[in-house]
Design goal:
The structure is a homodimer.
Chain A (H helix, E strand, L loop, with lengths): L2 E5 L12 H11 L9 E5 H7 L3 E3 L7 H10 L3 H9 L1 E8 L2 E6 L4 E3 L21 E3 L5 H16 L4 E8 L8 E8 L5 E2 L15 E2 L1 H13 L8 E5 L24
Helix pairs in contact in A: 1-5, 3-4
Chain lengths: 258, 258
């Protein structure tokens, strides 16, 4: 009847090529959690991206003329702007310090989700000058599927896996956790047409269940470090099923705020 | 170390004038939950509004010429549109079926948060024709404060109280729970300037903690009925403190999407 979210302590720092599924299984074992049918594992994008080698050294990036222009008006590093443009379908809004884009994965976010904090190649720990940034996973749904398969094979349980990031909001302050990769967990719960208490048909009736869970898990990951980038969830109140990030994306023709 | 969200079963149908704090205390007792310092009670807007008598019979509403015009272009009931306008500072976007406004409380939402489902005066249960709608509470921060005080006096514990609603999002499908009234729970956690793992300064560092909790609790309330409009939360990971909805509202001059 309760929803319980438990951050897994002691996930090691993840590097390119690390076996993330195995690291999660070991952390579950240390936390003495046995995976059961219906459990969900929520994973911060950052460690998925690192395991998949999505770190880029800014020194290796050659900004295009378009990036140089946009860097001027937004007062951002032209090499970072070049990466933002490469990772985006469309630039929606800009102002000094801010570039809001439609990411190639289809969602709207700042800086194409490229992260500058907690990002450093291990060999650079003493060279504070080296500037690495981290791109989102190439295909987060596929990443979630792979990890889910690995966790299911090891545990024998039917699971959901959710990869999340933190996004700002158009009209509210503060970031909230948001889904970017789904495997086995419904994005949207469609209650349309179900009767309410008084036999009226429900009106507001598509629930962004995966994003609600993403926000919940994000709350338990904190933001200050990457010490707890994996959260175990028990009691997700809906049946698990196949799904995809696409469920959660508003089609462009329904967008009033582009 | 875990966050646990427990929906309280058997909250009775709430009517104008009901003592909501008492109803919550009785439901906690039935669920055998003893309130402890740091616990948070999350309450669906709907039962707060009902207790505060925010039901309006559409037959009592006289639409203005402005409402009649907007009702034509949006294909909505002119009486409902009149109430939406009265509850709003500004209309941002419209299309058939949809009116997006800045609510008088300062947030952006559809239909000024006015709800049509699960709304009926008890005496009208057999008259399906009667059309009641429910406005948001007059001052949700104040409502949260009153309920918090009542729960704290009864329990002796230091608590947070959060009143939530479900909002759609500009670019994503599905509604998510969102804070509209805060008492004793931080809206935003400000991590700006804290060092990350590698002693860089954090960049994305204002966390919308109350909205993350609102989404988590909303997941456990469901939408199909109002059977579980109150959720008990244990393990909120930040210190409780005074706060207000205003913490979470992006100032108009920082809004790129108006």
């Amino acid at each position: 009847m309760s929803l319980t979210l438990t951050p897994l302590p002691d996930i090691p720092l993840i590097q390119q090529g690390d076996d993330l599924g195995k690291a999660i299984l070991m952390a579950l074992e240390r936390a003495e959690i046995t995976l059961l049918d219906g459990d969900v594992i929520v994973i911060a994008q950052k460690i998925v991206s690192k395991a998949e080698g999505r770190l880029v050294n800014l020194d290796d990036v050659e900004p295009s003329p378009e990036a140089l222009n946009l860097a001027l008006s937004t007062e951002k590093d032209p090499r970072l702007v070049e990466l933002i443009l490469r990772e985006s379908k469309q630039v929606l809004r800009t102002r000094p310090g801010t570039i809001i884009v439609e990411h190639r994965l289809g969602f709207i976010c700042a800086s194409a989700g490229i992260d500058h904090s907690n990002v450093q190649e291990p060999s650079d720990r003493l060279q504070k000058g080296a500037e690495w940034v981290l791109l989102l996973p190439e295909d987060p749904d596929a990443s979630a599927c792979r990890i889910r398969q690995q966790l299911q094979e090891a545990s024998g349980a039917q699971l959901g896996v959710l990869i999340i990031d933190s996004h700002g909001r158009a009209w509210r302050l503060g970031t909230v956790g948001i889904s970017i990769g789904l495997a086995g967990i419904p994005g949207i719960i469609d209650l349309r047409g179900q009767p309410d208490l008084f036999d009226f048909k429900l009106q507001i009736t598509e629930v962004g269940a995966a994003d609600e869970l993403a926000a919940a898990a994000s709350l338990m990951m904190g933001q200050a470090a990457e010490g707890t980038p994996v959260v175990h969830v028990r009691g997700f109140p809906y049946a698990l099923r196949n799904s995809s990030l696409k469920e959660l994306l508003r089609p462009r023709e329904m967008d009033l705020f582009r």
